[in-house]
Every structure is written in structure tokens, then in C-alpha cells.
Amino acid sequence: MQNSTHIPNRKRNRLKGYDYSNPGIYFITICTDNRVNSFGTIVQSEMIPNNSGKIVMDKWIWLSEQYSYVVLDQYITMPNHFHGILAIVDGDRNGRDRSLQKVKSISSLIGAFKTTSSKEIHLNSDKAFKWQKSFYDRIIRNEAELSNIQRYIFYNPLSWQNDIENSNRYSKHVREKYYDDIIQNK
User: Fold this and answer.
1) pLDDT tens across 55-111, in order?
2) How far is CA 47 from the centre of its chain?
3) What percent of the chain is helix, strand and coil (3-state, nearest 5)?
4) C-alpha 97: how far from its chain's center?
5) Which residue has the higher pLDDT, 35 or 93?
6) Is residue 13 in some structural domain?
7) Does residue 1 carry a pLDDT above 50?
8) What are residue 43's DSSP bridge partners?
9) What is the DSSP letter of 164?
10) Residue 84 pairs with which residues in a beta bridge?
11) What's the domain range around 38?
12) Does the pLDDT value for residue 10 go beyond 50?
């Protein structure tokens, strides 16, 4: 009898052949499972984080405290997702030789972030909380992209009513194109 188990081909989330532990700047978006509003609300175009939202921000900062080769830039917690810019730097902020240190990949760093934030959210506010599997990332290639993404993150609460992550009405393909257009300032 033949095994009829079919494993669907999943779209590759990361750039093929790229070492995500290399120095670089990365734009990260992580959504809650089923895009449930778990982190707070938008009031008059301002994000008001609840306890879970504050935990997410604290754990993002924890990444740079835990890993000396991680430098954080602009970030924001939204009701059902998180945006952040994370850099892996040559050497570390403490002046130690990075060659002596095992550098985690972006996937491992985001895994640590999701695990620690989930555990604390479960202990303090929402036992049912879950992150969506995986995450969106973009390798930031130049200063113009960095500037566009910083601006997008900063103004994200102002556009919440029209935010592509505000509901399930958009497909993953439409969301990916949307983020690509932002990065290229279209």
C-alpha cells in the first residue's frame, strides 16, 4: 500500500542561500495567531498597549540585552502584530571579539523573542495567547529603505483603520506585495 500522505510545498520565507546570522539590518513583522487583537487598542491614532503589549515591547528590548551583537531601531506593538528593525552588528557593543561568540540567526532570535514573550504573556495575562507561525522579514539593503521602513513603523498607528493587518480580508500575497511597495516607497 502506498503512503498517500501529501506534504504541501510551502513558500520559502527566507532568502535562499543567505546567512541570516551575518551582519545586516532586518525589518521584522510578527502577527498574532488568527490576527487576534491581543496587545491593546488604537485610540485617537495612538497605540495604547495592554499588559500583553507591554510584555512584547519588554521582550523586544530583552533581545538586545541578551545578545550583545543585536542593535534595535524603530519598533511598535500594534493590536495584533509587531513591527521592528533589528540589526546584527560586527563585533558587539561591549567591544568583545564576535568571532568568539556564536551568533544566532534572525530565525533563532525571533524564536527566542516569541518564546519568552509567549511564556510571560501566559503567566501574566492571557493563557490562550499564540503567535502566528513564522514571521515576515526583509533584509534592508540601503539607507532609503531604512528611512521608508522607519517612517512606516512610526506612523503605523495613524493608519490602523486601513492597516493591511487590521483584519483577515487580505491574502498573504497581497500583504507581501504591500510591504514590498512600502520598502520601495511606491
Assistant:
1) 999 999 999 999 999 999 999 999 999 999 999 998 656 666 656 668 999 999 999
2) 17
3) 40, 20, 40
4) 27
5) 35
6) no
7) no
8) 46
9) T
10) 28, 75
11) 24-183
12) no
- Report yes or no: 68 and 95 within 8 Å, Cβ to Cβ: no
* Domain assignment present for 10: no
Greatest pairwise CA separation for the chain in angstroms: 62
CATH of the domain at 115: 3.30.70.1290
CA distances from 15 to 45, 127, 156, 160, 167 (A): 34, 34, 26, 29, 27
Dihedral, CA of residue 115, residue 40, residue 55 and residue 35, to nearest 10: 10
Length of the chain: 186
Domain count, the chain: 1
Whose CA is closest to 145, among 177, 89, 185?
185
46-49 and 40-43 strand pairing: antiparallel
Please list, in sequence order, all residues whose beta carbon lies within 8 angstroms of the beta carbon of residue 93, skipping any fewer than 6 positions away.
Answer: 68, 69, 71
d(CA 66, CA 63): 5
Instruction: Write down the mean pLDDT value for the chain.
Output: 84
Tell me how crowded residue 24 is: count the other CB atoms within 10 A of its CB. Answer: 16
Q: Is residue 120 situated within a structural domain?
A: yes
Answer whether 96's CB lies under 8 Å from 68's CB: yes
- How is residue 156 annotated by DSSP? G
- The whole model's pTM is what? 0.80
Answer yes or no: is 18 within a domain.
Answer: no
